[in-house]
Amino acid sequence: MAIANFRCLVLAMLMATIILISGNHQVSAQCQASIPSLASQCLSSVQRFGPKIPPSAECCAVVKGVDIPCVCKLVTGIVEFIISMEKVVYVGRSCGLTIQPGTICGSYTVPPS
């Protein structure tokens, strides 16, 4: 029961973050990111708490269409409270994306692979 409540809280916070990010239509259009799809398909792999979980095929399909450096510019402290940037890089690389070392996502700097 406690885990279900925690997941609901995390999902609610993520949705609030998505609404805030989506409000910037210029940046959202620029990044061509489907933030809601990323949230629904990849949340279990990138949430801050818990172990690293390999991304699903559905998550990878969404991730492959995202401009990671552009999306990284949208990362705020609120996003980092919910999402692990280390796991985001892990998921991106697991899905076959090349994420350049030194790329900055919020307060996280991507290390060499």
Automatic annotation (TrEMBL):
| InterPro entries for the chain | Bifun_inhib/LTP/seed_sf, Bifunc_inhib/LTP/seed_store, NsLTP-like
Question: Residue span of the signal peptide, if any?
Answer: 1-23
Q: What's in the keyword line of the UniProt record?
A: Signal
The record places domain Bifunctional inhibitor/plant lipid transfer protein/seed storage helical at 11-105
Pfam entry (one): LTP_2
Q: What is this protein called?
A: Bifunctional inhibitor/plant lipid transfer protein/seed storage helical domain-containing protein
